Amino acid sequence: GNRVGEAGNEMYPYVDSTAKKYADNVNAVADALAGKATVYMLPVPLSSGISLPDELYGKDIFADQKDAEQKIIGYMNGNVKSVALYDALMAHRTEYVYFRTDHHWTALGAYYAYAQFCAAKGITPHELSEYEISQYPGFLGSFYNDSGKPDAMAATPDTVNAYHPLSADAHM
Q1: 21-25 — which CB contacts under 8 Å span 24+ positions?
Q2: Which pairing describes strands 80-82 and 7-9: parallel, antiparallel, or unpaired?
Q3: 55 Cβ contact list (under 8 Å, min separation 6)
């Protein structure tokens, strides 16, 4: 990875042979489950594909993730329901959808992916306003640890926002 200010980013070189191998595996599972279960495939863009400033994007170490998403989706067969996430996350790129000090998306980023999944499945997502949120400040993640715990990141730690489950059967 590398750092832009207090935010870490993962390099992303698209490797077509790896994408094909992944698709072969997903297709095989979908074929085996045909008629029994629906297999959904959601290629998740890395934070560098969404949050990285435009002037740094599209270089060799940061391949075009929208293009990669479309290639990966194109390798899926008719038994796989593919859910594109790139455009939905890009539409919210100015929001807190990825951690700055960690390679994961935040619960908000995951929510936007959930909304896309619901659309593909034909169900209505819960509204963000329905969730009770607990906040846990002071999170320093993988980018922080893997880059030698830089002071710039330590000075601006992430906050983990936890969206409480709406199911009566779920407990936190």
Answers
A1: 22/72, 22/75, 23/72, 23/75, 23/76
A2: unpaired
A3: none
Q: Residue 163 to residues 44, 100, 134, 135, 140: CA-CA distances in angstroms?
A: 20, 19, 7, 9, 19
Cα distance between residue 50 and residue 82, in whole Å: 19
Say how many residues make up the chain: 172
How confident is the prediction along the chain (172 residues), in pLDDT tens digits per residue? Answer: 444 556 787 777 789 999 999 999 999 999 999 999 999 999 999 998 888 777 766 566 677 899 999 999 999 999 999 999 999 999 999 999 999 999 999 999 999 999 999 999 999 999 999 999 999 999 999 999 999 999 999 999 999 999 999 987 866 5
**Which of 120, 105, 111 lies closest to 39, judged by CA?**
120
All residues at 6 or more sequence positions from 11 whose CB lies less than 8 Å from its CB, including other chains: 1, 2, 48, 61, 62
Structure tokens, 75:
């390798």
Does this model's pTM top 0.85? My answer is yes
